[in-house]
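User: structure tokens for this one?
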Amino acid sequence: MTTIYDISKETGFSPTTVSKALNNYPDVSEKTKKLILQKASEMGYIPNSHARILTTKKSWTIGILFDEKLNVGMKHPFFSAIIESFKKSVEARGYDLLFISKDIGGDKISYLDHCKIRAVDGVIIITSKPNDEEIQAIINSDFPCVVIDNECRKSSSVHSDDIEGCYKVAEYLYSLGHRKIANIYGSLDTFSGNVRYNEFKNALKELGLEIKDEYFVDGGYFSFDGGYYAMKKLLELEELPTAVFAAGDFMAIGAISAIKEMGLNVPEDISVIGYDDLELSKYITPKLTTIKQNADLIGENAADILINAIDKKNSRTSVIVPVELVVRDSCKSLT
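Assistant:
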């Protein structure tokens, strides 16, 4: 196995300089680093992780705590896209990822104890319940944390601009001539469900539209079934809405299924707009008009914030990522 001493002999630089170059110390010139890194690559040098930990005082491991109520886990395309983006960003800077669980070798432990045992450098948290006691224990610990798709007073956070998204939906439907607009909202005990419910109501009020309680139906935890059964309730109303905003694409797709089942058409009879811009949305019939969340940018921002916190280059930071209206075929103009 190639060592730093072998690289030292080949390059003529001292073992100390070689070690500093391999660990990206600032007191080694870029030219010297480049020569040493190139030779190390040619010689097939693989850094010793234990030595690297001792040298840099880091484990070079980041924990991912993924705990949500949708019961789909990593299969949900929005969250998997965020994690993939985060993974690419941190791996490019030399970090490994570790999923934080409550089980090591069959022994039940807390999330915080898992982080301590594995000596992670920091943690990203994706959860629908940030006030959970065990999650709060990590947020209140010395581990740098970033909460994703949520907001937290004691930790850095990254989430989409749901206020902007709701106003874009309301203004778009209004511009098409819709005045009877319903909302299938996500569970109010989630951050995004709560924000989208309240801000969509505010947007409709600002447009001077009447807020009808019967037009607001709980779709649960953003699932197909939640959207389907919520739409069924809307279809029982004496005065049907001309447009429906479902606060998640899966709910929107469930709503479209319920509408079709009743012998109605989208968008000819009822327009439907979603939220997320999941890959599936462009392949259903009709193709779904929706609000695009930038999962790549959320993941990249989370990586930047967390690594800067690990390196003590920033304090608590919150980033709100812009959203975009994607117009396809599921909404009809009434004008």
